[in-house]
Write a structure and sequence with these properties.
Blueprint (H helix, E strand, L loop, with lengths): L2 H14 L8 H27 L1
Amino acid sequence: MSTGAVREIGERLRSIIKEEPELPLALRRQLERLRKSEASRLAVGHAKARRS
């Protein structure tokens, strides 16, 4: 899956799923892991782009 596709999916999910206090803790943790993973992939993509 391309970085652009992953980014688009993440943006759409964020617009649909709003983190609220009433979300179960397990779901909030999963959302946080998704954010960190997405940020890590974007950082790697930017680093590769700079080398090119």
